[in-house]
Amino acid sequence: EKEAAELGKGSFKYAWVLDKLKAERERGITIDIALWKFETPKYYVTVIDAPGHRDFIKNMITGTSQADWAILIIAAGTGEFEAGISKDGQTREHALLAYTLGVKQLIVAINKMDTTKWSESRFNEIIKETSSFIKKVGYNPKHVPFVPISGFNGDNMIDVSTNCPWYKGWEKETKAKATGKTLLEAIDAIDPPTRPTDKPLRLPLQDVYKIGGIGTVPVGRVETGVIKAGMVVTFAPAGVTTEVKSVEMHHEQLTEGLPGDNVGFNVKNVSVKEIRRGNVAGDSKNDPPKGAESFNAQVIVLNHPGQVGAGYAPVLDCHTAHIACKFSELLEKIDRRTGKSVENSPKFIKSGDAAIVKMVPSKPMCVE
Fold first, then answer.
1. Which among 349, 275, 279 is positioned nearest to 314, based on CA atoms?
2. Over the stretch 151-174, which tens digit does the pLDDT of each residue have?
3. Residue 291 is inside which H or E element, if any?
4. Which residues of 217-227 are buried (b: 16+ CB within 10 A; e: fewer)?
């Protein structure tokens, strides 16, 4: 708190704890995706603090693709809320990315309620607007708790606030109906996703570190399968095969890493130059991952000035890879809600269209 105040970033004070990099600390923005953990009465929670500034959408994609659930933080301040959910706003873009990247459980925290003097009508107005826009994105508002908070003052974060006697609490209807008042209770009401431990190992690398006295340590989240010491892993599309010496999480040795775990693992005789972020590790003896020469993808055009045709080569973010891929052929245009084909081999697609497209990556890439 003291350090932040000295730099004049008082209102950023709690993000400050997570904003570790010096560049971030001086700009007052969350850049990399920080991994932090805390415990609730029910869960161990790993926070992937996804950044809220447009320049950092690539990191937001890496972070979000690793999340089980998301808290969409909405600023209640006059003008601030409207800017976030406007057509070009960050709130809208982040909600859409989260849904598209498979984060299906959402909590909405309506923050800075102290700046609205805890206005019930403002809270209800924001719920109404936000419900309609997350519904368009794909979320069912009935499954989403809406919690009024002040992160700065701690209201409704862990303890029930006395500043909003009108607030009756949140409720959501998923597998069973759940109710509560605080953000902490909403976190504990998340349904843990089923973990595919029986599938072959897939572990997209988020980073590769060289650690003195230990060697090469790739880091990433286990998506499927199990990783353990002694296993011989293959990295695709790099084509490197090696033995895992040890696996750890949060600086503690693990006997095995399971789906959902953010792990670091030490590998034998591999230099940092041979493997990189975006590679995927798998078990060399059980259906190891391979690079793809081409693949067919379902593509939705969200907003693009003009038309998109064969030859277009955008950068694709897939798990942790970030690679330009060419649209080599538009196979069919489909109805984005039902997935049914509406036109074969269209010449172009435009904003709002969905299509099946044959994509060719500009360099080897792992996609399944």
1. 349
2. 888 899 999 999 999 999 999 998
3. none
4. bbbbbbbbbbb
DSSP state of 353: -
| 169 and 161 Cβ atoms separated by less than 8 Å | no
Each residue's pLDDT tens digit, 54-108: 444 445 555 566 678 899 989 998 888 888 877 777 777 778 778 877 788 999 9
CB 119, CB 125: distance < 8 Å: no
Burial code of 21-59, b = ≥16 C-beta within 10 A, e = fewer? Answer: eeebbeeebbbbbbbeeeeeeeeebbebbbbbeeebbeb
> Using an 8 Å Cβ cutoff, are 244 and 228 in contact?
yes
State the Cα–Cα distance between residues 258 and 245, nearest whole angstrom: 16
- Alpha carbon distance 48, 74 (integer Å): 17
All structural domains of the chain: 32-188 (3.40.50.300), 203-283 (2.40.30.10), 295-361 (2.40.30.10)
Q: What are phi and psi of 162, to 5 degrees?
A: -95, 0
